[in-house]
Specification:
165 residues; mainly alpha; single chain
Length: 165
């Protein structure tokens, strides 16, 4: 039970707020808040919300610390580590969590149509794709087979595929 109290004390000291000021802002008595910080009392979610307002931190951070709210599953503890770091300001924590969440969401999105097209058009490993350094044939155009006729490219005449172009 002392973990939440230690965390509240760290946050209060970091914010340079006295016990009396925080108790006033949270609407609790000085002795009660002192007991919470020493781990003798377990505050309710409502009291934690008021303390969070007084500390100007998210109530979620206190809920996670108190065990009322579980950290998001599958996040490997990153969120709780950020929320409990006493050297980060509340704003820094929020920004880092937003960035982390955006990366997680981005990695869960299905590939875009552009990515699918690139993957679809890529020759299979060991396949018949062009050799390194060669340009692939233009879209919708197959290279002429040996002995077949193909346009020269100058708009004039046709040449055998074996002729020099």
């Amino acid at each position: 039970m002392g973990d939440i109290g230690d965390y509240i004390r760290q946050q209060r000291e970091q914010a340079k707020i006295s016990l009396r000021q925080l108790a006033d802002q949270a609407g609790v008595s000085n002795p009660y808040l002192s007991q919470v910080e020493r781990g003798l009392r377990k505050p309710s979610a409502e009291i934690l919300q008021q303390i969070a307002k007084g500390l100007r931190i998210s109530a979620e951070a206190l809920y996670v610390q108190a065990g009322i709210l579980e950290d998001h599953p599958g996040d490997s503890g990153v969120r709780s580590a950020l929320l409990t770091d006493p050297q980060l300001t509340e704003r820094q924590k929020q920004v880092l969590i937003e960035i982390y969440e955006s990366f997680r969401k981005e990695s869960q999105k299905p590939p875009t149509a552009e990515v699918v097209a690139v993957i679809r058009d890529r020759p299979a490993p060991g396949g018949d794709g062009p050799a390194r350094g060669e340009d692939p044939p233009a879209r919708g155009e197959d290279p002429p087979a040996p002995g077949r006729r193909a346009p020269r490219g100058d708009g004039d005449e046709w040449a055998d595929a074996t002729d020099a172009v």
